[in-house]
Amino acid sequence: MKRRYAGFALAAIVIALLLVLVFRRSAPPAPPASRPHVPVAAVRYGTVDRTLDLTGRVGPAAGTQTKLAFSVPGTIAHIDVALGQRVASGTVLARLDETPLSLTAQQAQAASRAAESQEAYARIDRVSVRQRVDQAELARQRVLLRAGVVSQASMQTAEAVVAADRADVESAREALAAARAQAVSASAAASSASYNLSQTSLHAPFYGVVVGVYAQPGQVVDTTVPIVAVSASMTSMATLDVPVTDITRVASGDLVRVQCAGQRFNARVGAVAPTVNPATGLAELTVDGIPPNVPAGTPIDATVVYGHVRGLIVPQSSLIADPQTGHMLAFVESLDASGNQGFSLRNVTVSAQDSRDAVVSGVRAGERVATEGTINLLAPSAGGS
What we know:
Layout lengths: L1 H25 L13 E3 L1 E15 L6 E4 L5 E6 L6 E2 L4 E5 L2 H25 L4 H19 L5 H47 L2 E3 L4 E6 L6 E2 L6 E4 L5 E6 L12 E6 L2 E15 L4 E7 L10 E17 L4 E2 L6 E8 L5 E13 L3 E5 L6 E3 L3 H4 L8
Antiparallel strand pairs: 1-20, 2-11, 2-15, 3-10, 4-6, 4-9, 5-8, 6-7, 8-10, 11-14, 12-13, 12-15, 13-14, 15-19, 16-17, 17-18, 18-19
Helix pairs in contact: 2-4, 3-4
């Protein structure tokens, strides 16, 4: 009887164990530790370009262009050319409002004519005939005085009249000289006014290309304000401004990636001028290979490739700057202490970079780094260390 109860107990235990095993197998597995899903990229060997981002303009250096200004002050009435336009010698580039200078010229001409009339009037001899008559009368009075016909007082009166005639002659000569000087001055003023009026049009001094337009209609300018710049017809080149500290990195023949006027194309460094432009405080270099359809004076954005660096490459988007230390960081995919996949924050050193990739140390080839969503990895729940 006891054996039968013992057998029942053992059977019950076995059945209970079987039920536990079945329950464990049928129960859903525990959810894995939560880990943010972010894009990753593998660390690899590659090459990054050393580059300089510069700006400039199509056309030769500033020293080879001529900035033109009006020789008289005034208000701009019209700009007759556009940036990049080819012009022949004598082409009208801009015009001033002629109205004030035209009125001044008319007034000067009228004043000149009046002065000429005054001079002509002063030339009329009104004294010499009277002087001759008075001198003859004086001679007659002297004869009559010797004959005892007239008194001494009569002769003295005749002498006074002749003396007055001499004074009138001298006064007439002075008046004529003054009128002549006035006429000469008025004529010069009229010529100057006419010349100023003729200078209201700005002309191209030689055949070339308009590389700068610095003013606009309605602007009041004087003789120191440049209006238009004209350069020799060399539109297949461009000029870039370079910080003096960077100019030694660039050499003739370096690749230049250019973007301007909605176009992208490759060109080459032509010449490097290490001297500083006093107007900008920058050095300059020329770029050859600009397409002929790009107008002179067009602004350009250029990237000069002056060397290459080979090493371990990660995407620029995977790098994070520590705001406190300034060190560069990257999230590297790794296993935590429990064997679960996560990301660990690691210091890296950047030796070269371009707009897309960076050459770094502090990682190994084949490791994977997070490229986006790193803000999620910074959260405590991400499990990063």
